[in-house]
Every structure is written in structure tokens, then in C-alpha cells.
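Example S7 (C-alpha cells).
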């Protein structure tokens, strides 16, 4: 199950074949098989990334989105609460440092769903998945729940690893990396020869141990059973064609902002066709290691760090193979590495289901609002529900025309048109791009390594 990178876990064929077949068929029938003008290509993706279910569309908008005081009793009750609640201001957590550095959004929050997990690891979804209609797309709900059940053990391993990290395997001693300078060689013992030796010496790094004894390491299992979890669900495809055959790769990022309090991610690569090997790459910020004075060579040789370079180290990668489930903590930056069509004469794709787990143990995670308290904002959902329920009856059993219902929906608080939702998505993307840049500057590439004299 361990993927070769600390804290990252993977499992091949994690989902039973019948469940995989149902997922592929239902996603095709309910989400992909739509007219071209209805397809939601992710902005700025060169028509390569197709959003099927994405949390950036119709997010919670502070000061705009209506939020209930208490959760809706269950998934089927969403229609009863349309336009209920009141607009929610920005979160009550007001740490100025977090806000100053854009870790907390004052505008948006992705909306998770409530997933109730019983003691045996069986999951019941208690609130709608944002942008996945609970009636039009009803068949997908139990399918996605079963996929999440398959991801649950991996997420538990990730959180257990975060709670009790693996001990350091090698304790480096930079002052013992080199053989001593032979001062007894009086014939060549000059400043020039010493300088030459010092500048060109190669550290004698310890070899990796053949075995690593973890007997003394107390790993604490982490259980998500018996809890109601907040889970953000995303489905997206990368499509390549002979006319557009190369995916350039994604940006380095962590998922969400502190407003979502995402602690871990599970990805399921359920359909991969006609592409070269695709990697999900990880990296992490590091603290400056100990070093011998001015030992540029040793630090670069041992750690891959360079004078005035970023305090960042690669953290390995994992191959995005069909049928593979991957889970990792949301403390590593990650990105999709570039890939292209294997056979340039035909199309190819890579399709994923992603689950972003809101931290179930943090105060900020408790503050995150789920769809159990947010009546749907989608104007077409509201209009469909009111038309179906006969909300506006006329004489002789007639119903107000749908066009007029649409006009009524435009006037109510809490309803949002698709055009407005897409405009807000661009604002959200711009905000999060700035946040990624801020985090990059503070914690990753912006933190540089300086070899000072001491």
C-alpha cells in the first residue's frame, strides 16, 4: 500500500470491477454525453481539462450564499429548504496573520458534502454533492459513495502517518562527511593544495541501510469510522487529440485554502487511454540543514540544495495508472507532470475522481460549511424543483410556463445563474492563484538557502 514516498499511499485495483464499470458508464451517460455547448472546459486549460463536477463552480460566497442555522435532515430534503437561511459573513476565525498572507479566503469556500461513516466503514451520504444533481444524477450518488469507501483505508493510513511520522532513517553529521586533510604530507602541504583539496573534496555519505528497524516506532492507527466527514468531490478529465496532443503539466499547489481545511486527498484514476506515462509529482519545503562552513559542494551533493536556491526538495512521484487509488496529505505540494498522446493519430484521456477530506479534528474544519446547511444555489435546480412541484399553479390545473418560472427564480435571494457562477469561478481562481503564489513565496521557492559564514 505504501507508494515509496513517505505519507503517500497507493493501491492498484482498489475498486471492484463491477463498481468501476458502473462508474465509467454512469459518468458517460449522465455527465459526459451532453451537447458540446454544455461541456464545461476548465478556464485557461486550452480546452484540455473538462470539468464534470468541480467545487469552484457555485461555491459558498461570503455575504451572498444563504446558510441555514441547522443542517437539513437528509439528502432528500434539499427541495424543502430552497432560498432558506441567511447570507453568511466571512468565517469567525479572525487570525490576522492567516488573513494577511491570504491563507484564509474572505470571499469563497468550496462546499463539501456530509459523508456518514459507520463502524464497519460503510458510508451514507447525507447532503448533496455540489454540482451533482441529487435527482438527475441520482444513480451516481451510491456509486461515488462506494468509491469513497474504497478510499477510506488509504485516507486513514495517511492521517495515521501524519500523526506519527516515520523516524529519520539516517541522522546526518555534516562534520564527519570528509576524510581529514593529510597535514603530514609536508612536501605538498601548502595553502594552494589545501584550498584545492577543500574545494574538490567529495563527501563520504552513509549508504542507505538494507533494513530499517521500525520496532521502536509506535504507529498510531487513525480511524475515520463512526464519524460524519466533510468531503469535497471533484470529477475531471484531461482530453488530448491529434490537434492538441500534449498536456503541459499543472502548477505546483496544495488543495484549497485554510478556509476549506483540507487535510488529505484521495485520487482514483479510473480511465486512462492512449497517453504516455503520467506522473503525479510531490515536493516539500524543508528547513536549512546543518552544514560545515561554506560547504556548498556537500550540501548540494547530500540534499540537492544550492546557495541562494529554494528550500525545496523533490518528494518523489507516483504513476497515474488506470485503476490506481492514491492518497496523500495536503502538506506536500503536488502537480501533474507533462504527458502526451502515445499514438498521435487518435485521441486519449485521463479521468479522475478526487475526494478532498476536510480536517475532522481541527477547529477550522468544524467551521467549514457543508451542503447540509446550504440550499442549492443553482438557478436551474430551483426552477426544475418548482416546476416539478407545481409551485405556481394556475386555473384548471395549469402550471406557470417554465420561462416565467425562470424569471421568478432570477429575483429570489440565493439563486445564481450559470453565467454568474462562471464569473465568480474566475474570481475564485484569481484569488487562489494569488494565494498559491503567496504560499510559494513564504514556504517553498521563495524561501532560499544561504550558506553564511559561521
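Recovered sequence:
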Amino acid at each position: 500500500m505504501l507508494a515509496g514516498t513517505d505519507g503517500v499511499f497507493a493501491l492498484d485495483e482498489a475498486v471492484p470491477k463491477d463498481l468501476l464499470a458502473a462508474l465509467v458508464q454512469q459518468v458517460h451517460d449522465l455527465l459526459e454525453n451532453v451537447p458540446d455547448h454544455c461541456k464545461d472546459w476548465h478556464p485557461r486549460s486550452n480546452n484540455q481539462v473538462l470539468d464534470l463536477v468541480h467545487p469552484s463552480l457555485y461555491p459558498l460566497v461570503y455575504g451572498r450564499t444563504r446558510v441555514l442555522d441547522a443542517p437539513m435532515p437528509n439528502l432528500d430534503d434539499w427541495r424543502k429548504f430552497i432560498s432558506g437561511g441567511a447570507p453568511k459573513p466571512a468565517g469567525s476565525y479572525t487570525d490576522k496573520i492567516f488573513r494577511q498572507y491570504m491563507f484564509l479566503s474572505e470571499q469563497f469556500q468550496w462546499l463539501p458534502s456530509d459523508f456518514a461513516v459507520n463502524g464497519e466503514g460503510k458510508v451514507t451520504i447525507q447532503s448533496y454533492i455540489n454540482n451533482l444533481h441529487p435527482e438527475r444524477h441520482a444513480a451516481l450518488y451510491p456509486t461515488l459513495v462506494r468509491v469513497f469507501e474504497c478510499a477510506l483505508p488509504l485516507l486513514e493510513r495517511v492521517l495515521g502517518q501524519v500523526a506519527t511520522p516515520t523516524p529519520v532513517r539516517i541522522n546526518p553529521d555534516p562534520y564527519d562527511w570528509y576524510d581529514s586533510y593529510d597535514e603530514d604530507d609536508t612536501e605538498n602541504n601548502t595553502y594552494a593544495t589545501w584550498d584545492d583539496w577543500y574545494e574538490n573534496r567529495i563527501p563520504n555519505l552513509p549508504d542507505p541501510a538494507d533494513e530499517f528497524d521500525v520496532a521502536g516506532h509506535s504507529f498510531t492507527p487513525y480511524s475515520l469510522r463512526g464519524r460524519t466527514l466533510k468531503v469535497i468531490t471533484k470529477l475531471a478529465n484531461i482530453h488530448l487529440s491529434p490537434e492538441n496532443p500534449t498536456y503541459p503539466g499543472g502548477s505546483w499547489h496544495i488543495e484549497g485554502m485554510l478556509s476549506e481545511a483540507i487535510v488529505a486527498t484521495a485520487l482514483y484514476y479510473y480511465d486512462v487511454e492512449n497517453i504516455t506515462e503520467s506522473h503525479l509529482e510531490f515536493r516539500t519545503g524543508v528547513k536549512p540543514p546543518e552544514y560545515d562552513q561554506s560547504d556548498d559542494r556537500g550540501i548540494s551533493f547530500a540534499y540537492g540544495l544550492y546557495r541562494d536556491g529554494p528550500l525545496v526538495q523533490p518528494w518523489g512521484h507516483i504513476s497515474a495508472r488506470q485503476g490506481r487509488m492514491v492518497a496523500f496529505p495536503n502538506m506536500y505540494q503536488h502537480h501533474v507532470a507533462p504527458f502526451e498522446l502515445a499514438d498521435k493519430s487518435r485521441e486519449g484521456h485521463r479521468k479522475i475522481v478526487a475526494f478532498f477530506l476536510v480536517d475532522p479534528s481541527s477547529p477550522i474544519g468544524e467551521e467549514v460549511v457543508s451542503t447540509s446547511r446550504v440550499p442549492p444555489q443553482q438557478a436551474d435546480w430551483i426552477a426544475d424543483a418548482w416546476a416539478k412541484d407545481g409551485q405556481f399553479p394556475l386555473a384548471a390545473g395549469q402550471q406557470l410556463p417554465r420561462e416565467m418560472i425562470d424569471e421568478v427564480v432570477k429575483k429570489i435571494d440565493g439563486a445564481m445563474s450559470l453565467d454568474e457562477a462562471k464569473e465568480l469561478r474566475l474570481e475564485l481562481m484569481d484569488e487562489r492563484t494569488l494565494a498559491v503564489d503567496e504560499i510559494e513565496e513564504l514556504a517553498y521557492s521563495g524561501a532560499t538557502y544561504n550558506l553564511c559564514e559561521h
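Notes on this example. The chain is about 25% helix and 20% strand.
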